[in-house]
């Protein structure tokens, strides 16, 4: 694999596309031909304009920005809202390079939708990254379309590896993966919010409550990463027999968290299917 990437265009560098873009820049991996990014507003485009090697275009100033970016880049990432994807694909289809690799960042938009507009001969991959990509700790699911070669898939994998871990899956597993790693950061933040609220109720200041809770989550995750231990084993090491942690964990286990998470992920998968159906 080359120590550089071919030219890359981010069509819609919003929260997710912007996270991948910033992570790519932070990684220092060279991009031959540079990186282009488009956003609808000048304000959003200005946020990316200072990034090294990035040309940031505001569509309100240059309505042809998506077409120009797509025409010049080998790797074209589609990061607009799912409902906007078909119109964008119709706009760029006539100008895509013969060797273009189109990568979807849009939840719920199928490879079939891309092929129906771009043609069956265009290499398309569907990705599902998450926002920790911004700090190089992302998890990205990657599903290759039927004509994407091993070399083309490797290029896209290399791009996403600059911002974390990549898991290759068949397309039918993308929605399930999204319900775990794609939406998962929100689950963690919700747990942090709730435990912080409890700490405040116990008399701690907001600052101390946040320091305790956020530090505990960050530290526990870092320990899990550093040791490679099974989380159940690390939990057992904290849980002394007949101690305070054992009593607290018993309460959490009675709450049937597994069932709650199953219901939550099922809801996310159902919504992804609604998006795919245009609902």
Automatic annotation (TrEMBL):
Domain of life assignment: Bacteria
InterPro entries assigned: 6-PGluconate_DH-like_C_sf (IPR008927), NAD(P)-bd_dom_sf (IPR036291), P5C_Rdtase_cat_N (IPR028939), P5CR-like_CS (IPR053790), P5CR_dimer (IPR029036), Pyrroline-COOH_reductase (IPR000304)
Binding site for NADPH: 66
The enzyme's E.C. designation: 1.5.1.2
GO cellular component, one term: cytoplasm
Class in the EC hierarchy, top level: oxidoreductase
Signal peptide (from-to): none
Catalysed reactions, semicolon-separated: L-proline + NADP(+) = (S)-1-pyrroline-5-carboxylate + NADPH + 2 H(+); L-proline + NAD(+) = (S)-1-pyrroline-5-carboxylate + NADH + 2 H(+)
Subcellular location field: Cytoplasm
Keywords: Amino-acid biosynthesis, Cytoplasm, NADP, Oxidoreductase, Proline biosynthesis
Coiled coil start-end: none
Gene3D superfamilies associated with the record: NAD(P)-binding Rossmann-like Domain, ProC C-terminal domain-like
Pathway: Amino-acid biosynthesis; L-proline biosynthesis; L-proline from L-glutamate 5-semialdehyde: step 1/1
Cytoplasm found in the keyword field: yes
Keyword Oxidoreductase: yes
Database matches in PANTHER family: PYRROLINE-5-CARBOXYLATE REDUCTASE, PYRROLINE-5-CARBOXYLATE REDUCTASE 3
HAMAP family (UniProt xref): P5C_reductase
Function recorded in the entry: Catalyzes the reduction of 1-pyrroline-5-carboxylate (PCA) to L-proline.
NCBIfam families: proC
Name listed for the protein in its UniProt record: Pyrroline-5-carboxylate reductase
Protein encoded by which gene: proC
């Amino acid at each position: 694999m080359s120590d550089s990437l071919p030219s890359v265009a981010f069509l819609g560098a919003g929260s997710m596309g912007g996270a991948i873009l910033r992570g790519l820049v932070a990684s220092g991996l060279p991009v031959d031909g540079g990186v282009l990014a488009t956003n609808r507003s000048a304000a959003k485009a200005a946020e990316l304009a200072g990034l090294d090697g990035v040309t940031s275009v505001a569509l309100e100033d240059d309505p042809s920005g998506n077409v120009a970016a797509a025409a010049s880049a080998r790797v074209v990432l589609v990061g607009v809202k799912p409902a906007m994807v078909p119109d964008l694909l119709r706009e760029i289809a006539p100008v895509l390079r013969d060797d273009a690799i189109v990568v979807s960042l849009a939840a719920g938009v199928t490879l079939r939708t891309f092929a129906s507009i771009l043609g069956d001969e265009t290499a398309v991959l569907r990705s599902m990254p998450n926002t920790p990509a911004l700090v190089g700790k992302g998890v990205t699911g990657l599903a290759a379309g039927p004509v994407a070669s091993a070399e083309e898939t490797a290029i896209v994998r290399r791009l996403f590896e600059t911002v974390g871990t990549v898991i290759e899956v068949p397309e039918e597993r993308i929605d399930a993966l999204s319900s775990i790693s794609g939406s998962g950061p929100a689950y963690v933040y919700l747990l942090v919010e709730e435990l912080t609220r409890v700490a405040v109720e116990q008399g701690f200041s907001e600052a101390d409550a946040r320091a305790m809770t956020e530090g505990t989550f960050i530290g526990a995750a870092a320990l899990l990463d550093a040791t490679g231990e099974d989380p159940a084993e690390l939990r057992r090491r904290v849980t002394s027999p007949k101690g305070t942690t054992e009593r607290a964990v018993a309460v959490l286990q009675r709450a049937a968290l597994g069932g709650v998470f199953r219901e939550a992920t099922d809801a996310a998968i159902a919504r992804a299917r609604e998006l795919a159906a245009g609902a």
